Amino acid sequence: MNISIIGATGYSGVELIRLLKSHPEAKIESLFASSQAGNELTNVFPHLTNIAQFPLEAIDIEKTAEWVFLATPSGVSGKLVPSLLEAGRKVIDISGDFRLPQETYQKWYGKETAEESLRQKAVYALPEWFSEQIKGAQLVANPGCYPTAASLGLAPALPYIDPNSIIIDAKSGVSGAGRSVGLGTHFGEVNENINAYKVGKHQHTPEIEQTLTRIGGKETIISFTPHLVPMTRGILCTMYATITEEVNFQELYQSTYEGKPFVRVRPAGSYPKTKEVLGSNYCDIAVHVDPRTNRLVVLSVIDNVVKGASGQAVQNMNLMAGLEETAGLEFSPVYP
Amino acid sequence: MNISIIGATGYSGVELIRLLKSHPEAKIESLFASSQAGNELTNVFPHLTNIAQFPLEAIDIEKTAEWVFLATPSGVSGKLVPSLLEAGRKVIDISGDFRLPQETYQKWYGKETAEESLRQKAVYALPEWFSEQIKGAQLVANPGCYPTAASLGLAPALPYIDPNSIIIDAKSGVSGAGRSVGLGTHFGEVNENINAYKVGKHQHTPEIEQTLTRIGGKETIISFTPHLVPMTRGILCTMYATITEEVNFQELYQSTYEGKPFVRVRPAGSYPKTKEVLGSNYCDIAVHVDPRTNRLVVLSVIDNVVKGASGQAVQNMNLMAGLEETAGLEFSPVYP
Amino acid sequence: MNISIIGATGYSGVELIRLLKSHPEAKIESLFASSQAGNELTNVFPHLTNIAQFPLEAIDIEKTAEWVFLATPSGVSGKLVPSLLEAGRKVIDISGDFRLPQETYQKWYGKETAEESLRQKAVYALPEWFSEQIKGAQLVANPGCYPTAASLGLAPALPYIDPNSIIIDAKSGVSGAGRSVGLGTHFGEVNENINAYKVGKHQHTPEIEQTLTRIGGKETIISFTPHLVPMTRGILCTMYATITEEVNFQELYQSTYEGKPFVRVRPAGSYPKTKEVLGSNYCDIAVHVDPRTNRLVVLSVIDNVVKGASGQAVQNMNLMAGLEETAGLEFSPVYP
Amino acid sequence: MNISIIGATGYSGVELIRLLKSHPEAKIESLFASSQAGNELTNVFPHLTNIAQFPLEAIDIEKTAEWVFLATPSGVSGKLVPSLLEAGRKVIDISGDFRLPQETYQKWYGKETAEESLRQKAVYALPEWFSEQIKGAQLVANPGCYPTAASLGLAPALPYIDPNSIIIDAKSGVSGAGRSVGLGTHFGEVNENINAYKVGKHQHTPEIEQTLTRIGGKETIISFTPHLVPMTRGILCTMYATITEEVNFQELYQSTYEGKPFVRVRPAGSYPKTKEVLGSNYCDIAVHVDPRTNRLVVLSVIDNVVKGASGQAVQNMNLMAGLEETAGLEFSPVYP
């Protein structure tokens, strides 16, 4: 499988390079990065010295390989995908451009995106829930980092909780903000610090609602609050919902995710840590029932750069290509 | 005012020394620390070289000064307070021993504490709400770190929210776990990591419920989830509640805390950061209304070692002694 | 004493505001920050809410108060100082523009600076060594952060070490790079990371050499290597020199710095930590002799934003104004 | 290849598990950890859930597999190795017990170790320099973390520098102190902090001297100062030496390490970062010449848990077994 990455110098792009270099079937053919065109990859990322030697090229659809990963900022893939599809490429879009109906996208992202007719060609690719649609797709929309952790954590419980009671309090490492520079990622400003941001306004809110509504079959409106945590990688979603029917949630989760290689339902009473999935494609989940408040509390952790972006993208590529879902992704978290 | 600190070598103890050394009316007379008795303070804390020169002594009630701060682990002050009161000392207890009814304490802390009759002599000393009772008290129970941030953040809204809808998602720096050693505070385990702990079981839960019930006048049962964040100081409480009556929450908060020197209600749309109060006695609060879910989202930050422990203890001492509430506490946060 | 700060929105500027707000004799009158002119200080620094309320103004020499602190990037004060002096202001320049002979400056900074005749009017203001010249000066050049830690740490030993054997291996927190944004201060790039930079080329090299040459009376050429450490504040200099005459270095250092309130010579065998001076104006020093190699190893720590910049600037203001050297600077480090 | 790990619950032990699980030829058979005997591996390390399922056993030589890794504290392997050798096992000792002559060990470690006659059976296994002796060895002493970074960084230059001018200023992440609890690894004490320790006394000093003396052929006495940096993984050695013969050091290093897959000599002018090797077995080296002082400055970075311990141990196993040196170790650093 020959591969091109467009947007190779962001954090999702460079993580794709790490993962695909160890993939048994994949071969990176070309890297595109408009801001760095003409430069060498190892000048931008010296950690890839002797590992990946590539020129960084200006985007040119003609030069792309059969498989194309789009690790681009919002608003870019909407423009590139039509020609990629026309050229017959298989496309995995890591950006948000194809995840939401055009109107919803424009409302929450404040940007233009692809026409809704084109948009609908994309399969929303959360592999643990929609693998059948992913297999054989030509264009998939890789889920966002927060939506991955949140949806995997809440989906099994949906029949037994009040869909309008859901509160998702999410915490992310700084790499989630990408590699662009700004005061918001300046070490002096974010180290020894934690804060919420975009309360009630984060663009991942409608994506989570759409997924929960689709899986649960009931219109779902959530409260979603993201936070910035002084660490590089990792997302923890702490999620609250009122229980409408008492079931054994521990067993429910275990049976739901049996056979899903990247979801690890942790034993009753566990407190998963982001560090326990660092560098890996796992999503670790623990369920707690609080009898005092009749609430379910679900804890879900991922590495935002892997299961929340590039790892899941490779998992989707595997499914699209009919490979083992775990190909190239079977490595242990890096601990400590 | 002559002062003794019992438990001088924990983080609350050493912060009391920092604060009291700059206090215009206070003079530290003696420091007690059973585990370090016989040692010099500056051997334990070299940062106090040339600033505070004291021997560390074994606890001896007779030797205590008129004002006594108890910065001891749970279960200790319950035993010391009777003799301190008998000896006529003014006592500020930073531990949890006098905050809850005996039965509640024993259930949540799993430890013995003082008899309920003695316990009731203690004034629960959240100064922004109970200053009248604090003035002239002989024994005060200094609130816990999480309860301080949570109660200050929710109290003004209580008449207008559903008391049983309250969810408090709290994030704390590692100093909240104290200076005792253990895997839970090992750098290799908590750095680059975030996790929830004690879901539905944290001992600060009944303290918050008691305060909100008292202020709001309605029985209040909350969901409270603490998290450990890879930073040294700081607590952020992100709090959710369903609005039962629409009011201008921004104005409500501003007018409620007008004249309260240590609560800063931040402008509409703000996202207070823990770093913005680091080293200071401020509690910064922002209120957000989410019309999509009809929920109020309150953000409240403190420095857990200052407003969440030793700073508030000094504020209480000031009130008890009839001094200006701000005496010795008027310094800026340390930023960055 | 009425004060203006030019460059109020960098890290040195905002630290000056923190320190001067607690100073018994100083009153901030105006703040200048060209990039933020027209904005309110608390919009840029919400942590100063209710503490310091000022508009940020475009630079206007006429509007400056009697005392002017220049907390500007390299190359700016060289241009502003002539008119400030003409207007009769007392000037404390925190930037590097007046520390080096014009030619040396231009070689190491790669920028223009003031004419050498003007430059020579500035007193190099390391107060522990040059207090007599500072008293009564109209213009002082506040030393750089690395030169402060290095010079204080090495100066007493100079008569007894080989001046050409000196190696200074320095480690700094990220705030030393200022508040400007760039990949070099991006959290994702500097967290969990350490690296050297500008080996043999850092602009503080000639400043250290100049000071050691002046104090020691012997031409001194050093190796100086700065490093970036994943912390916000703090500098540690680890310094090596070959001993030419055996003396009791511990006693030498203690007697040299007796009566210097901000230098704490730590007991023999100590390992000072940057955290032990955080937020304070102290420089803590420990001396070790390695008999196997006949080398002296000196460890010197400061808070780069305080003793390495704004705290020392206030100390210099105190000296210039004939106040107690410690006025407004007598507070404890913040620990932990 | 069947493998046992003794000391499986320290940081070197758990890293061995990560690496060996991805190794094409290795199969972990049993894990020994006296302090945790009877427990399950995933109770101690939940991040290995679904990856490595093993009971933790009390040490029993009879039960060990053919290949034994010793990841034990100082003083333990000296006692275990005789019976392991007798039982015919191939042994890779990650601890320091077999690296130094008995007398030197006892002086620097302050502990007993194996008899010198036994000790001499161990091959000091720095693979880039001693691969011939490693091939076919039954017992190897894996180098220490600091000695690996330092020796690889200095070895090529030895003919052209003064061996008694060498100064090694080393900086390590906190995982280097192991997983044992203590104030020295408490987050509140080491976060936002840097300090030197064991100046002139660190037990890795004679190991580095022995290696440099052996490679360079000249008696070498060094100054070595380790520092603790607020990060989890990584070592940077900044090394200084006086040049005795001018050569093209860049070319010298490149040609010396040509064909050594885990040493990456970075281009002239580089500043390698510890993050650029995180999680990988690489040692990245840059050489700088300072003409002002006639000194060579070498920068050398490794991941202390990988190339500084378990990764190098696997590399040595590969050599001993006649496999490709890189087997199981060909993965990219984790960045960011």
From TrEMBL, chains A, B, C, D:
Entry keywords, A to Z: Amino-acid biosynthesis, Arginine biosynthesis, Cytoplasm, NADP, Oxidoreductase
Keyword check for Cytoplasm: yes
Pathway: Amino-acid biosynthesis; L-arginine biosynthesis; N(2)-acetyl-L-ornithine from L-glutamate: step 3/4
Primary site of residence: cytoplasm
Annotated Gene3D superfamilies: Dihydrodipicolinate Reductase, domain 2, NAD(P)-binding Rossmann-like Domain
SUPFAM superfamilies noted in UniProt: Glyceraldehyde-3-phosphate dehydrogenase-like, C-terminal domain (SSF55347), NAD(P)-binding Rossmann-fold domains (SSF51735)
Active site: C145
GO molecular function, one term: N-acetyl-gamma-glutamyl-phosphate reductase activity
Catalysed reactions, semicolon-separated: N-acetyl-L-glutamate 5-semialdehyde + phosphate + NADP(+) = N-acetyl-L-glutamyl 5-phosphate + NADPH + H(+)
PANTHER family according to UniProt: N-ACETYL-GAMMA-GLUTAMYL-PHOSPHATE REDUCTASE, CHLOROPLASTIC-RELATED (PTHR32338:SF10), N-ACETYL-GAMMA-GLUTAMYL-PHOSPHATE REDUCTASE, CHLOROPLASTIC-RELATED-RELATED (PTHR32338)
Purpose: Catalyzes the NADPH-dependent reduction of N-acetyl-5-glutamyl phosphate to yield N-acetyl-L-glutamate 5-semialdehyde.
This protein's name: N-acetyl-gamma-glutamyl-phosphate reductase
Lineage per the UniProt record: Bacteria, Bacillati, Bacillota, Bacilli, Bacillales
